[in-house]
Amino acid sequence: MCDQWLQQFGPAWARLDPQLAAVIHTIYSRWVGPPIYELSPAEARLALEQLHVFWSAGTPAVPHVEERTISGVSGPMRVRLYDPGVPAPAPTVLFLHGGG
Question: Which of 3, 47, 58, 77 makes the best surface tag, with the fewest CB within 10 Å?
């Protein structure tokens, strides 16, 4: 199955930064099983837990993580703030998850 994934997504990954493309290739070359979208939510969570080492390997610890709730159009939304502990102004990254 992983060969099929690598062939399917190879052209799209070719446009990525070479280091990021190498990481993605490593992850999916080790993938065993059906595509994640064919798994149940519980099976997908379990499968992704086995790959979590790729997401955070070698990263420094974040000194401050804070959970908050903010108002949204359809009600309260949970947000998580990661503060790297560097003086402002500092670079900012915003991740938005559409659900699922």
Answer: 58
**Residue ranges per domain, the chain?**
2-56
What burial letters (b/e) apply to 24-40, b meaning 16+ CB within 10 Å?
A: bbeebeebeeeeeeeee
Per the listing, tokens 């070719």 go with: 14
* Per-residue tens of pLDDT for the chain, all 100 residues: 456 666 777 787 788 888 888 877 777 777 777 877 888 999 988 887 877 777 677 777 888 999 999 998 989 999 999 888 888 888 888 887 766 5
Alpha-carbon distance 22 to 14, whole Å?
10
State how far the Cα of 53 lies from the Cα of 60, in Å rounded to an integer: 13
In angstroms, the Cα distances linking 62 to 3, 54, 81, 86 are 36, 17, 10, 11
